[in-house]
Amino acid sequence: MLFLILIVQSVTAQKANVYKNDIGINMTTLLSEVIGLGDNDIVPNYNISYRRTFNKKAFRISAHAGLNKNSDFNNIDNSTISLEEKDFRLRLGFENHLYLSQKFLLIVGLDVLGMYQSSISVSTTGFENDIKTISAGAGPALRFEYKISDRISLMTESTLYFITGNENDKVTFLGQVQNDSNNSKYSLTTQIPSVLFINVHF
């Protein structure tokens, strides 16, 4: 009887440690500021992610939201230029998990992503430049995860994305449109394993 109770307790404990969900926080910028890791001016591609695991497969959704405002005084014409930048990104990923050991996990996946970016600069001379870019892309992703405990892990990633989009560039002076152009953009972007996520499993 005692033997059966021990077996039941062992199985229950193992099941309790299997977590299907996790939330990842990009810690790259924080580490850059605290210990000087990398370039402080680099904006992380995605600053939060959620993953749902199904056995050795998983679905991931990642997001990034950025807002930057600043102003600069131009000594040449004594004007002030105000700049406002917005950056919104959404990424969906499908993953296969390859367990190298109890602590190490290799993740191979395919991501699709969409992005919206805008930059508005306004000068006290009357000029205004408004740039908006809408992009979409897809590509493979390779991630490496180290399990600190059942609930905490560290992860880095490397990606290769083909991105296409449209950029609208409008210049106005005192409310009158001086130039309004639309340009198609194509790019192949790579991300080396220089970002660090901390994942909390639940």
Write up what this structure looks like.
The protein is mainly beta and 202 residues long. It has one domain: Beta Barrel (Porin), CATH 2.40.160. The chain is built from two helices and nine strands; from the N terminus they run αβαββββββββ. The chain has an eight-stranded antiparallel beta barrel with strand order 1-2-3-4-5-6-7-9. A hairpin with a 4-residue loop joins β6 and β7 (152-173). The longest helix is centred in the first third of the chain and has 15 residues, at 2-16. It starts with a helix and ends with a strand.
Query: What is the strand content?
Result: over 45%
Overall geometry comes to: elongated
Helix content: 10-25%
CATH architecture, by name, is: Beta Barrel
Q: How many helix segments?
A: 2
Computed Rg: 23 Å
**Number of domain units:** 1
Q: What is the topology, as strand order, of the major beta sheet?
A: 1-2-3-4-5-6-7-9
* CATH fold description: Porin
- Structural class comes to mainly beta
Just give the CATH class. Answer: Mainly Beta
Terminal Cα span = 33 Å
Order of helices and strands: HEHEEEEEEEE
